[in-house]
Amino acid sequence: MKLLVSSDDNGQVKEVIFNRGTDTSKKDGQQPISIKNFCTEPKVISKSRLINFSDKYLVAAKLGGSLNIYELPDEEIEMEDEEKYKLLHSYNLEVEKGDVPIALIANDELESIIVAYESSKVFIINLSNEDFNVDPILINLDINKPIAAFVENPYEHGTFAYGGKEVDVKIIRLFEKNVNHEIFSKKDYKKSFIPKELFKAKNAKNDHLDLRPQIWISQILFFKDQPTNGYKFITATRYGQIRLYDTTHGRRPIKDFKLCDKPIITLSFVNENESEIIVTDTHNLIAKHSLTLVDENAHKTISASAGVIIKPVAKLLGKFSEGGNTGATFGVASNGEILVTGGLDRYVRVFDIESRELLGKVYLGVEISSILIVDDEDEIEEADIVNEAPIIQKRKRRDIATEAKEESDEEDLWNELEINEKKSTKKQKTV
């Protein structure tokens, strides 16, 4: 399999190629096929984020407003390392030196990327012109506090949500539903990007001591099953909570679960029907929870005034603990079958989502904040007898049931041929 991993220590991107079963933490363990550094300019400490834009560009947003556009290599063409990931253009966005990018989003309809910073500055950058000569659009959100989450609603064009410390979730429209990439051909295109508030969440009810719950949104996800004239979404907080909202039922969360005591820093859907999630925290937690199965007596609080208070919790379906994860996990990527994680302990790990089995573990020597899955197939090194050079070939994973069925069909075919041959021989003898 092949991954692209951001390096926070020097701002580079590592291309990692390895097979299932690789484990560099073991002395005699299977080793990766290749680990190479790309995108080596500039060498800075960088809380970077990576995205694949239309299988054409690799986009890296870095600390302090640096945003680089690299050419993605064609996987079907063999290329020398110096030809890969060429820097095509750099933007220096108008933010403070230490401003952290919290979101990097590709929007196909606009043929643009959208990058949001902790300072609540949002930039829209059109990439449809290969000269990169369209000026970025700066949007200042109507808030004077830093934000920690900024996401697109993938089921309604132009709609986004954000939140942060003492900033409860707001849903806004950045541009109208009919706006597409053609807007950038107009001189006054910037006038089409004015945020409009659609929804503002209300805090959960006061606790048993009548104290107001603290707000610190760290992640937001929209459900694909969106209600008519409303929105359905889930948030994670740095107080270890997840909250579910349906705006047709009011501004408060309809469900509020405490999952852990540490801050939740990533939140991902696991399955197709979005009934399961994976969360990671600032300690060592990587856990899968159900949104439909609830443990009614899972969380207990002892209060001197109110006694024992029992609250329901979204059922824990298991932890991804094989491989000894240590420290915060910032980078998480998934394709529905495998889960790839990385963070402070400098290891990238690959898990099977269903079984939670560790499929691979590679030490990279750098802190990781963002991961892209380029290819989830194994690579096999075979010796070329003539040139005595390693050749890398693709090996697709095959379903055992499929293989068994094919073998059974092949056996049936041979049996049928034998029967027909016997009949033909018998008929010839009769004649």
Give the averaged pLDDT, no decimals: 87
According to DSSP, the number of beta strands is: 30
- Rg, Cα atoms, Å: 26 Å
Which percent bin holds the helix content? under 10%
Mind telling me the CATH superfamily name? YVTN repeat-like/Quinoprotein amine dehydrogenase
Major β-sheet profile: 4 strands, antiparallel
Describe this structure as you would to a colleague.
It is a single chain. By secondary structure, the chain is mainly beta. The protein has a single domain, classed as YVTN repeat-like/Quinoprotein amine dehydrogenase (Methylamine Dehydrogenase, Chain H), CATH 2.130.10. It has one helix at residues 400-430; strands at residues 2-6, 13-17, 34-38, 49-53, 57-61, 66-71, 87-92, 101-107, 112-117, 121-126, 137-140, 149-152, 159-164, 167-173, 196-200, 217-222, 232-237, 241-246, 255-258, 264-269, 276-281, 286-303, 307-319, 329-334, 338-343, 347-352, 358-363, 371-375, 378-383, 390-395. The strands form 8 sheets. It has a 4-stranded antiparallel β-sheet with strand order 3-2-1-28, with no helix packed on it. A 4-stranded antiparallel β-sheet has the order 4-5-6-7, with no helix packed on it. The chain has a 4-stranded antiparallel β-sheet with strand order 8-9-10-11, with no helix packed on it. The longest helix is centred in the last third of the chain and has 31 residues, at 400-430. It is globular and about 70 Å long.
